[in-house]
Amino acid sequence: MADSDKKDTAKEQAPKIEIKDDVKALGKILMSRGYITEKDTANMKDAVYAKALAKAIDKEVRSEEEDPFIQFESFDYQNGVIKNIIFNMDIIKNRDAAMDTLSAELGLKEIKITKQAEEEINAIGNV
Questions:
Q1: SS in 3 state form for the chain?
Q2: Lowest CB count within 10 Å: 12, 14, 35, 127, which one?
């Protein structure tokens, strides 16, 4: 089976996520404040749902006048806690700023790694 056939099959088998939130209202929050967390909707606790929600919001807010760069990310925190954020990169410029925003919003401490550990991780990724 060709790679493109495998991708098409995977798309067909992927379950359709039903969005239960008010996409229009969340889109307004995202465009004004710059981010959405589980404080805005408890459904953000589910990464699969949150990713689908990000796509729905992106579709809602995109127009001829608006062309935002909407991003979804999951971040690891202390004690194995994983939290999700949808953010507008026109307002929150990068991943680090998104993690800082999510940390402050939810009152969580970020996992900090040493420079040496970061270099080792990068070296492994470049192998």
A1: CCHHHHHHHHHHHCCCCCCCCCHHHHHHHHHHCCEECCCCCHHHHCHHHHHHHHHHHHHHHCCCCCCCCEEEEEEEEHHHCEEEEEEECCCCCCHHHHHHHHHHHHCCCECCCCHHHHHHHHHHHCC
A2: 127
